[in-house]
């Protein structure tokens, strides 16, 4: 169901949580992702959240307009590179092993797993990417900034925490904003998926259903909100008044794909803004599952020997 | 309305943490039920139809005012929705419906569960119902859905891994005739598989029309419908019917001169012939099912006669008579199920009221029948005649619905067939289920068991309670016929099917319906002595199978099945009406005729029984609900 919120000077939003409506809208050429703050108050406040992440005036890659210089080509190149990575290449990674121990119910905590994931994702872009408690906390701050309440956001902004978190993430990424996106924003979705995997494997009622081919569909959830703007007025099926260049479309992708087991949809694969890490994230989860299984086997063998 | 229901939903979710709906006083239980249904409609309907699906073959000219043979064109904008061969949907999010695999599929051993937790030791009856309530339900199930034949290991159209049978190891000391026990898998999607299915949980086809359209009487394809409407001494297939026979010109279904169903020959796997009764939905025949098929085939023919009398200008138009009679009979069946069968099995004041409200709304029977609908609201004036609405997903029956309707424990093992006049036994001993099933059914009629005797005998005995250790022994060693001929344990199969089809286990199932979840076996089991038995087999309460959990839990007072199953029931029972154009926007004289609307209004189970079997009047005298036990004669 789509909802339109229009209050003069205060808000002009169209919220979409139906996947078909979203697909129709996404194929509309006048729908774009130009996120410079504008429009009524609430629109501005929402847009400001993505704008404030910009580094030296450059927005992070998932907040670029459709025709932004080089966007499409860079995303394509990244996808091609990430698509090459297979499960076998990942299973040897020490960090994956560490994560597997936690997933299998062993030692470690969420933060430690976050750091390991950050290192894994960071090294896709920067050879010697260095993740630690500080970089993880910075990623947490980014998450709170993008999805926390207005008071929290105000506090993060006024206290300078946002700026230092952003600067830290970007500097660890050696200025590569794709890396910053992966280690500062996308990382949370991956950690949530790993945590869900842990839950599924811990529950004897669901353990038997988790498989290599299906683990992504069972554990991943799409990002909560994607933003879209409008280049020229358009009439949509979702509301009576046209959408204006000052309107903001909030795509509630998580709601729209909830319960669908549709991994393509979660990565917005049919969109012009499809996620380049689609195949990679799936492979990563499979590698973790495999590591959990081999960890289980060795600990069972150890148990039997004892 | 949405807002009010949403608010009510939040309020009752809070209240239900401490007090379940069925312990609230009547005036609170009803809005609580309405809020539950609203919430379920929004959050527990998921579609799986990713393929284009079968091409519609409606077999009717006026698709607006008649039910298509294959269930197509019910939704005029999505003609394939609910047609035979479209997929089962789901009541739980799809990411929770991946099938159980390998060791988990067999953990704990389903045969052990069947033996230990299902085997009937002493028959536990439902005292307030008659066996006819069980036969009726199977009769309805055969209208709504079937997964069709199993995946035969010899079927090369199916990928090898998916036709490889499931092998269940036989526990020590169990004398099953083979080890491992071979269970054929559910037939997977083959022809209908599309690239979008990749990586998604398996989906299965419903080979019946999914609508409440009496397809158990009329078939789910044009070919079968023609067979049923064709008069010839003995026709063994739809192809033969199309070639040899002639469709009855008066719109009727073919019945033998003695008013029984026509017969056909089926060959057993050893080549020997078996004579069976013909109806719209093949399979699992027994006397309790046959009586309803026979009665409603007669009812169809009676409605054809009445229509010809009411509309003499159409009396020669056999096709028109057939189609109108079909609509009327289907609606009458839906009405009987809603306002008679359901309040019998869920025998509480709330459900009696709620089910009548599904049909007539809060406005009530008298006012709706006397003055028509006062409003468009389904709550106020009933679903019948309201706007069609599919809610969160296109209409289909669901796997979870299928799972909670595996109610085999309703079936008794032994039957005493008696004369309706004086209760005198017809045979010198009770008969086993096997002796009143399959090819034995027409033989019994030929041996002088009348339809009235059969109804009466089943009407004066009780069905089994859907509790632990009450599974019919005969079904634990059921002789199945070709093409999948073998002796099977339906108890083992019932447990396995849910795991195979990715229906969540009991706790996860309840969680997906936002119900509370037991933390221990003690908390789950109504009877404390069951807890250690379940623990020994399952070890962890999260592993308890849906069927077992539903049988072990404490039910609301007056209920004939569990509160867990009931959640699926309240969602789907209304959905079968609310999604169907012929119960909503097209429940009109244009589609049904004025006579038809009146006929549905004025008839009931008892009225149908007494029309065709007036001799049963003394046995039904004073019986409030035709599914309650009847009066014994003699
Ligand atoms: C290694 C981790 C990841 C990286 C480097 C990454 C990178 C990106 C980039 C660069 C884009 C912008 C594409 C464009 O504008 O053409 C994008 C979009 C997207 N990503 Fe990812 N991503 C990652 C993980 C994830 C995860 C775990 C999810 C969760 C399902 C996800 C879901 C999405 C979605 C839905 C979009 C579309 C955004 C839109 O339509 O505006 N990504 N991603
Ligand atoms: C003598 C009586 C009955 C016999 C012989 C019988 C036999 C069977 C058989 C052989 C199956 C298929 C098992 C498989 O999946 O391989 C089945 C399925 C089923 N039966 Fe029965 N049954 C009987 C009565 C009932 C009754 C009274 C109900 C009441 C609701 C019922 C409900 C079901 C359901 C819901 C299924 C699942 C169908 C599907 O998976 O598509 N049955 N039965």
| Helix count from the secondary structure assignment of chain A | 14
Low-confidence spans of chain A: pLDDT under 50, at least 5 residues? none
Quickly give the structural class of chain B: mainly alpha
Helix content of chain A: 40-55%
Largest interface (CB < 8 Å): A-B, 20 and 31 residues
CATH class of the largest domain in chain B: Mainly Alpha
Please tally the β strands of chain B and state the result: 10
Give me the Rg of chain B, rounded.
Answer: 24 Å
Distance between the termini of chain B: 56 Å
| Strand order within the widest beta sheet of chain B | 1-2
The amount of beta strand of chain B, in percent, is under 5%
Major β-sheet profile of chain A: 5 strands, mixed
CATH architecture assignment of the largest domain in chain B:
Orthogonal Bundle
List each distinct ligand once: protoporphyrin IX containing FE
Major beta sheet, strand line-up of chain A: 1-2-5-4-3
- Cα-based radius of gyration of chain A, to the nearest Å: 20 Å
Task: Compose a concise summary of this entry.
Chain A is an alpha+beta fold and 306 residues long. Chain A is built from 14 helices and five strands. In chain A, strands 1-2-5-4-3 form a five-stranded mixed beta sheet.
Question: What does the secondary structure layout of this molecule look like, with pairings?
Answer:
The complex is a heterodimer of chains A (306) and B (634).
Chain A lengths: L2 E5 L3 E6 L2 H8 L4 E2 L8 H11 L19 H13 L3 H5 L2 H10 L6 H13 L10 H15 L2 H9 L2 H12 L4 H26 L12 H5 L6 E5 L17 E4 L1 H5 L5 H4 L11 H28 L1
Parallel strand pairs in A: 2-5
Antiparallel strand pairs in A: 1-2, 3-4, 4-5
Helix pairs in contact in A: 5-6, 5-14, 6-10, 7-8, 7-9, 7-10, 9-10, 10-14
Chain B lengths: L1 H15 L9 H18 L58 H4 L4 H9 L12 H14 L15 H4 L2 E3 L12 E3 L31 H4 L3 H7 L1 E2 L6 H7 L1 E2 L15 E5 L5 E5 L9 H24 L7 H28 L3 H12 L4 H7 L6 H4 L17 H6 L9 E2 L15 E2 L7 H7 L4 H9 L18 E3 L5 E3 L1 H11 L5 H7 L8 H4 L5 H9 L7 H7 L10 H16 L10 H4 L1 H9 L2 H8 L4 H4 L14
Antiparallel strand pairs in B: 1-2, 3-4, 5-6, 7-8, 9-10
The complex binds protoporphyrin IX containing FE (2 copies).
